[in-house]
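[[Per-residue structure]]
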Amino acid sequence: MLLAMLAADLTWTTPGDFIKALSSDEIQYSIRLSLMSCTVAAILSVWVAVPIGYLMSRFNFFGKGLVDAVLDIPIVLPPLVVGLSLLILFHTSAGVWVEDQFKEIFGTGITYQVPSVVLAQFMVACAFAVRTMRATFDQISVRQEDVALTLGCSRFQAFWRVTLPEARNGLITALTLAWARSLGEFGPILVFSGATRMKTEVLPTTVYLEMTTGSLEAAVAVSILMVFFAVAVLFTIRHFGSDRSLGRVI
């Protein structure tokens, strides 16, 4: 069925339609913003996922089960709910204060601006990155860290010099998976960022906008481009990630 769907997409557009669609200024902007926002969201996700994944893997503490469940909430929530929750959050007094401070520092707001795209992508992608890093650390023996501690290393030094290099493939997998998840986000971005052309438009919203204007050929062309990205990500994950770690993430 999946192959039939992809084949149907290919028969719906021609190379000329594909080139014409990708030559559009709006779609080129969408591609650039998607690549930029996905990369930033993925880097932030891994930056957060490494310490949290290590903490959840190596330590037992009161309320760990609750924390574990909270980390999974972005995965199980409907995407539109994530976007709506973000929108409501930034209309509270605390959210308005954060946005004002952000605007004072960076010269732009968050809601319905480019930062909201990154934040919407990050909220979901980070959960997958945390799962990946936790599964990675679970597979790394604690014994090597213990040896480093007995040789005089601090806990951080043992982590930095021993554990983190061992987790290199997991880091790449987490980064790639977070990037791919960010690329596919639609619901949270539509609600929290809008779908304004040449402003907050990313590839999934481009497909939506092209469909609503009746330009199915352009929508299919962008969809095929996203399939190419997805295939590249899949090969990267299969190369660097073990089946066991991927299974635990899913």
About this structure: The chain has one domain: 19-249.
